[in-house]
Design goal:
The structure is a single chain. With 350 residues, the chain is of the alpha/beta class. It is built from 12 helices and 15 strands. Strand 10 and strand 11 form a beta hairpin. The longest helix has 15 residues. 44% of the residues are buried.
């Protein structure tokens, strides 16, 4: 071995022989997950047939990158990320990914909520490490079918997402609002990270590969596992654009075999634009504005399944509108967590 460098709690090894590299990867994998987990986390029920024999799997895991803002965490845990009622048809786990600098990765579980503490810092530049680390932990510890990554300033209609994913392929899935073949952004600072680091990490790149931009995108479990090994964590240490990094890893490791599903234009909406990113302009997002985003098209809205870049109270507002009008999918019968027709969802699986 000619050299190592520290990434999170994993040593990424450079220029090794094949045998030594294999041994080092095994050691690194064990070192990353020092916390003993006697069983893989699995739900007591599920909506769709399991891809894992012998035990049910979560239909959806929602990874929420949370920061230091306690008000945001309280809002999402009181609304769309609240514990599910017993007996709901589809199983959902909420994984709140925290930054906790220290020697190990550990978690705390309460029902179908997991608090995951990763060895990183809570900055924009370290978000890729937090996301790739969360996917790696999931692959080792949880049985699941799809994972949705989002942030703590979002409202999500989980029921509508479950129905949407019910018709998707079970493997090689990449879903979100896609940006196709975006030109490289070089020598420009964005939240303190230099975009040109991308070209150094991916030699020869002239454009970004197709990637899902914004605060939400979904992957099937196999795709998440493929892009979250130790070497991917090493890249995440240097490439500070999280959504671009995920798209590039998918493209380079899966190529044309990945099934890209572009979210319809109204599926994921902004509560406010980056050009309006100030305390005064953000506070002017009115109830009418949220109603337009959160309600169904039949009621004059966009029928958004995900609304992000909103304040904690606006998260509660969207949740209240969804509960009162069933804005998330337009039918009161679906608002108890059960898809309207589970058999159709199952029969549509690839």
């Amino acid at each position: 071995m000619s050299g190592t460098h520290q990434v999170g709690s994993i040593h990424v090894v450079r220029r090794m022989s094949g045998t030594a590299l294999l041994a080092a990867c095994v050691v690194a994998r064990i070192a990353q997950f020092r916390e003993p987990t006697s069983v893989v986390l699995a739900p007591s029920h599920e909506c769709w047939p399991s891809v894992y024999p012998g035990a049910p799997a979560y239909d959806l895991v929602v990874v929420i990158a949370v920061g230091a803002n306690a008000l945001r965490r309280e809002a999402l845990r009181e609304s769309w990320a609240a514990p599910h009622a017993a007996g709901t048809a589809c199983s959902v786990m909420h994984l709140l990914a925290h930054a906790a600098p220290g020697p190990r990765v550990y978690h705390r579980r309460t029902g179908d909520e997991v608090l995951l503490f990763l060895n990183t810092t809570d900055t924009y530049e370290r978000l890729p490490v937090k996301v790739i680390g969360s996917l790696q932990w999931l692959s080792a510890h949880v049985r699941y079918k799809y994972v949705l990554k989002t942030d703590d300033d979002a409202w999500i209609c989980t029921h509508a997402l479950l129905e949407t994913f019910g018709a998707f392929p079970r493997e090689r899935l990449y879903w979100g609002k896609m940006n196709t073949r975006h030109a490289l952004i070089a020598n420009v600072t964005h939240h303190g990270s230099v975009h040109s680091a991308f070209t150094r990490a991916f030699d020869g790149a002239t454009r970004y590969s197709t990637y899902a931009f914004g605060a939400a995108y979904a992957l099937s479990a196999d795709v998440a596992a493929t892009i979250s090994d130790a070497s991917a964590l090493g890249v995440a240490e240097h490439v500070h654009i999280e959504d671009v990094l995920v798209g590039e890893l998918i493209s380079r490791r899966l190529g044309s075999s990945v099934r890209v599903r572009d979210a319809r234009r109204s599926a994921i909406s902004l509560g406010y634009t980056r050009q309006q990113d100030s305390a005064s302009t953000r506070s002017r997002a009115t109830h009418w504005h949220l109603r337009r985003l959160c309600t169904a098209a039949a009621d004059g809205g966009k029928g958004s399944m995900i609304v992000h870049r909103i304040f904690p109270q606006q998260v509660r507002t969207c949740a209240a509108m969804a509960a009162r009008r069933c804005a998330c999918d337009g039918r009161v019968g679906r608002c108890d967590g059960r898809p309207a027709n589970v058999s159709q969802a199952v029969s549509g699986l690839g």
